[in-house]
Amino acid sequence: MNILHRYIARNVIASSALVVLVLLSVESLMEFMNQLTDIGVAQYSMTKAMEYVVLQLPTDAYQLFPMAGFLGCLVGLGRLASTQQLMVMRATGVSIAQIVGSVMRAAMVMIVVVTMVGEGIAPSLGERGHDLKAVALSHAVGLKALGGVWLRDGDVFVHVGEVNSHRDIRNVSRFVINSHHQLLSADYAKKGRLDHGSWQLLQVQQSQWGANAITAHLMSRLPLGILFNPLSVTASIKRAEQQSVWELYRSIHYRAKAKLDTNQYEFAFWQRVMQPLATLVMIGLGVPFIFGSLRTVSTGFRVLVGVIVGFAFYTLSQFFGPVTLVYQIPPFLAAALPTVLFATIGVFLLHRSNMKR
């Protein structure tokens, strides 16, 4: 029986890997076509565009894998059905539940590998790709390419141009207003450093607004007046889909503390948490399809059905993102609904397949 489990799992894994390669090829071509309008702008060359596309591949693979897993299951089991191998297995007493178990074992192996890629290297490579493009288009680095970030604490407003590390910031502007929203002072420093738990601006150019005149000063150091985590700030301005689960958690915490809307980030967070389960559900969904109406059809038709069902799942998952913002649906519920819906369909189809036998 172990040999049979490994044989089924090997077929599903091989087919899923092939589907991933095909989908990534299509996705890469489409992504490269999208870059054509930027090629030739500033220093953004065709080579840099190709490098950008390659750096996005791990993220694309992670996002497409529920669909790819479903297609891989259809193709792998479909090949066994076409060659009558599944029929022989059933005739020798192998139940549908045992076949599902073999598929789930394969799914768990793939989920572990893909999750390690998606949560481990994909965010950093994706960020590197976006930085590469930003640098080529605007000759800027880090936050500078994004226009920096604004912070506020009471009457103190701060603009941070670049974050070099968790203790080092660059190109910092600081503005202080009074209760009547009148500007009291404007400060600029090329560098700021975290010193004993508080941010200090170094070599500060300060301008103070008086009743009748503006006075300028040069100061060796000046307290920033705002305490913040540069890594959280950097994560908070990245698009949600570019962040890992841990970065999303930090972004949610930072935005909640700053009293900013967190729905988009919470939805992305719960989508990431649900991703392994969603992949498991989609791969498992392929089994009742093979033992149902797709048992005797051609491989091409199975692929067509797989693309339609997989794309429906992907579209539904993306659809609930804007819905959470517009209708204030709890992000966890919106992220879980597609998985719950397709899991219910899978259980129903499995039950119907068993009832026919």
Describe this structure in words.
With 357 residues, the protein is of the alpha+beta class. It contains 10 helices and 6 strands; from the N terminus they run αααααββββββααααα. It has a 6-stranded antiparallel beta sheet with strand order 1-2-3-4-5-6. A hairpin with a 4-residue loop joins strand 5 (198-209) and strand 6. Helix 5 (96-138) runs antiparallel to helix 8, helix 8 runs parallel beside helix 10 (331-355) and helix 9 (299-327) packs antiparallel against helix 10 (331-355). It is elongated.
Give the helix/strand layout.
Layout: H1 2-35, H2 46-55, H3 57-82, H4 85-91, H5 96-138, E1 149-153, E2 156-165, E3 168-177, E4 183-195, E5 198-209, E6 214-223, H6 230-237, H7 245-257, H8 263-291, H9 299-327, H10 331-355
Antiparallel strand pairs: 1-2, 2-3, 3-4, 4-5, 5-6
What share of residues are in beta strands? 15-25%
Total domain modules: 2
What general outline do the C-alpha atoms trace?
Answer: elongated
Mean pLDDT: 83
Rg of Cα set: 27 Å
Compute the separation of the termini in Å: 22 Å
Describe the sheet with the most strands. 6 strands, antiparallel
Structural class: alpha+beta
Q: Biggest sheet, strands in spatial order? A: 1-2-3-4-5-6
- How many E-type strands? 6
- Poorly predicted tracts of residues: 139-146
Order of helices and strands: HHHHHEEEEEEHHHHH
Total helical segments = 10
Percent of residues in helices comes to 55-70%
Brief rundown of the structure:
Helices cover 63% and strands 17% of the residues. The protein has 357 residues and is an alpha+beta fold.
